[in-house]
TrEMBL record:
Domain annotation DUF222: ranges: 45-357
Lineage: superkingdom: Bacteria
Protein name: DUF222 domain-containing protein
Pfam family, one: DUF222
Length: 423
């Protein structure tokens, strides 16, 4: 930090820094009310140039500090750590500044000179250097120099965000054939890394709310973002209503986190059933159990096939709009009893078993209904009927055990089953 105490010799550098500090202090004491708009604009631009020059000089001093190992006498492990302690800064920030300073002094001299002239600012310098150091190590030296010159020239026109995009494809801009091949390899590697990082976790807090985290590749993330923005767009046909029953007013700008959350729920509810993957014999449709009176009056409660409760009002809405089949409605008149006309249970029958069993029916097993198989209590090959009264849900493990001749399956009064090895 700047100090008025002269702890150095009369070297022109510290003397000049103290003089510059005193000049800035004097300027800060001068009133600004007399500056008109035009002069204020010019002053802000001049200050930006001055700021770039000061940043350039600071980086040059940091590079020198690395050479003379300023932290050695105090036992600091690096120049960055010493600088962080001396200036009360974050260690990672100071370490990054030392690395940048060293790179500018030893390799990226054209970028350093542009910063010293005030032609680029410190933010742009970081973007340019990151782009240059991301170039392939075996790249021809002439192309590296050309890339540095091009990015310095672009910095005169473009802000850091735009410059970052240009830097990512600088080889394509200056040497298309080389750049396209490099970009292809880089994208392949990035996609492979992103594919390995795919994750999704979902937990339920027991108070009616689910919480999740996910990591997906950027392309799929953009696709999801576009879908959600579509559901959150003004005038969308499925736009949610506010507490008074009126459509919510669209807030200019990006949709809020709450709006995107509402859009995500709409996306889930409106996902086409015909496109849903199969879970056993079903297509991922939920089944809700309630009475006819509760369903039609929208009073009371209903229960999903995995035991999750919901209001009858929500069950009625979802039955009309989304992925819920109320068991009481009979699945649009589908036949739930078909004797020996078919060996396999239909989707409608499986939905009914989802609602009745709610999970694998083996004692102690909590596999959800969507991951279970529909099993004949009396094997079909031994005269069993393909009726829901003769069927039950079993997870893949217990379904295999039910067909294993080494085990007996016993049905208990609560419709749960246990298995015992035959003697």
């Amino acid at each position: 930090m700047a100090t008025d105490e002269d702890t150095t010799t009369a070297h022109p550098v510290p003397c000049g820094v103290r003089a510059l500090s005193a000049s800035v202090t004097a300027l800060a004491e001068r009133p600004l009310f007399a500056l008109d708009a035009a002069t204020t604009r010019a002053t802000i631009q001049a200050l930006a140039v001055l700021e770039a020059k000061v940043a350039s000089f600071k980086l040059a001093v940091l590079a020198h500090a690395e050479q003379v190992q300023v932290g050695a006498e105090t036992g600091c492990t690096s120049t960055g750590v010493w600088a962080a302690n001396a200036t009360r800064s974050q260690k990672n920030v100071s370490a990054a500044q030392v690395r940048l300073a060293t790179a500018l002094e030893t390799r990226w001299t054209k970028v350093r000179d542009a910063l010293a002239a005030g032609a680029v600012n410190a933010d742009q310098v970081r973007v340019v250097v990151n782009a240059l150091e991301d170039l392939p190590e075996d790249l021809d030296a002439g192309l590296v120099t050309q890339a540095e010159e091009a990015l310095v020239a672009y910095a005169v026109e473009f802000d850091p965000t735009e410059l970052r995009q240009l830097g990512a494809h600088i080889l394509t801009l200056i040497a298309p054939q080389v750049g396209e091949e490099v970009d292809r390899k880089r994208l392949e590697a990035a996609e492979a890394r992103a594919a390995q990082k795919r994750r999704f976790t979902l937990s339920f807090d027991g108070h009616g709310t689910a919480h999740g985290r996910f990591t997906i590749p950027e392309v799929q993330g953009k696709m999801l973002q576009k879908l959600l923005h579509g559901f959150a767009a003004p005038g969308h046909v499925n736009c949610t209503l506010d507490e008074s029953g009126q459509k919510r007013e669209w807030v200019k700008g990006r949709p809020s986190a709450q709006k995107l959350g509402e859009a995500f729920c709409e996306l889930i509810e409106n996902y086409p059933r015909t496109n849903a993957p199969k879970l056993g014999r079903t297509d991922g449709t939920f089944v809700t159990t309630t009475t006819f009176d509760l369903l039609t009056t929208a009073l009371g409660t209903a229960t999903l096939d995995d035991g999750t409760p919901m209001t009858a009002a929500q069950a009625m809405r979802l039955a009309c709009e989304a992925r819920i089949i109320p068991v009481v409605l009979g699945g649009n008149g589908e036949v739930l009893h078909q004797g020996r006309a078919r060996r396999r249970f239909t989707a409608a029958q499986t939905y009914a078993m989802h609602a009745r069993d709610k999970s694998c029916t083996a004692k102690g097993c909590d596999w959800p209904p969507g991951l279970c198989h529909a099993h004949h209590d009396t094997l079909f090959s031994q005269g069993g009927l393909t009726d829901i009264e003769d069927g039950r849900l079993l997870c893949p493990h217990h379904h295999a055990r039910a067909h294993d001749p080494a085990y007996d399956m016993k049905v208990h009064a609560d419709n749960k089953v246990t298995f015992h090895r035959r003697t």
